[in-house]
Amino acid sequence: MAEDRKTECEKAFPGCTPGRVVGEGQHLYKVLSDEDELLCRVSGGFRHAAGEKGDYPVTGDWVALRREGSLIEGVLRREACIARASAGGTTERQILAANVDLVFIVAGLDGGRNLTRRGIERYLVMVRESGAEAVLVLNKLDLCSDIVSALQAAEEAAPGVRQILTSARTGDGMKELAGVLSPGLTGVVLGPSGVGKSSLINALLGEDRLSRGETRESDHRGRHTSTSRNLVFIPGGGALIDTPGLRELRLWAGEASLDEVFHDLDHHARNCRFRDCTHQGEPGCAVQQALVDGELSHERYESYLELRKELNYLHRRSDEQARAEEERRWKQISKSVKQFYKGKKGY
Question: Environment class of residue 276 by beta-carbon count within 10 Å: exposed (0-12), middle (13-18) or buried (19+)?
Fold first, then answer.
């Protein structure tokens, strides 16, 4: 247990001990401390203080644990968090994993939709926003019919990102993958269903601890064999968080993260005549010129525009919800003040 976590816990929550969330279910959390593993709930005080879902513990969190009653009193300081915009009609941040150093984005080399350029780019924006380091894992090497084309597509989608070719079935690349996750580091495995995330983790563990699913022949997509997020410890290495396949990955990120992922496009954008150039027809647009000169692919340009449009929409919705929430808050304050003075008059 890191000494700084113990010190932080003692200062912020006297009488509590630090623990790490290694699993989560409905209102229950598996917490690992120096002594043992406990099944815990958040305390009443925690629920009262929590302002939103993002305040609640997630897998990877360090928490203040009160052993009497197995209660979580608070979440300790978070480092890099992997988050997305929640699915559905609301617009709020959903944290998938906390305190991670590495994010293994897993794509399948078995054809179908398990290796898509836009999918990889979307995951990279999410990772860049977190501040963690991305590693692209190209799995199912044994089922790949055209490795040259697959590598080219991956390099175009993730220039400069470390790539590891693996096969959980044959063991190819597993030594290199294990070497990346050094002791003391925490990684999280992300990717759609059917790319072999659970199989990779089982191979690293040396045992079939996580359930695995079959993929459909039509599109090579898989079922959700992992239904919750769990943290496991790799023998001789660090910790690894398994996640269910994401049916919908709505981004929660700033424009700076998008620009960093599309740094090749951003390089040209810095030479545009206008600082607020949208790269969609303005005079003196260096991005448009790069497209004409063949220095930038049209596919990457279209992907950038699509993701920027999504982020702009997200920011507008967030602003609208913040204004609506502020209005509701002031209405409630006004109502309380009126009731207070009404009671004073009655007195």
Answer: exposed
User: Binding site membership for Zn(2+): which residues?
Assistant: 272, 277, 279, 285
- Condensed to tens digits (0 to 9), the pLDDT of residues 243-302 reads 886 767 888 888 899 999 999 999 999 999 999 999 998 999 999 999 999 999 999 999
Q: Which residues make up each annotated binding site for GTP?
A: 139-142, 191-199
- The amino acid that residue 306 corresponds to is E
Numbered residues of the known binding site: 139-142, 191-199, 272, 277, 279, 285
- Parent domain of 57: 3-75
DSSP run (H or E) holding 20: strand 17-24
**In sequence order, what are the residues at sequence separation of 6 or more whose Cβ sits closer than 8 angstroms to the Cβ of residue 261?**
121, 124, 125, 128
User: Is pLDDT of 220 > 60?
Assistant: no
341 HSE (CA, 13 A, CB side): 5
Q: Which two tokens stand for residue 284?
A: 């003196």
Reference 131, options 70, 79, 92; nearest CA is 79
Residues 219 and 200 in one domain: yes
Q: Is residue 342 part of a domain?
A: no
Domain contains 223: yes
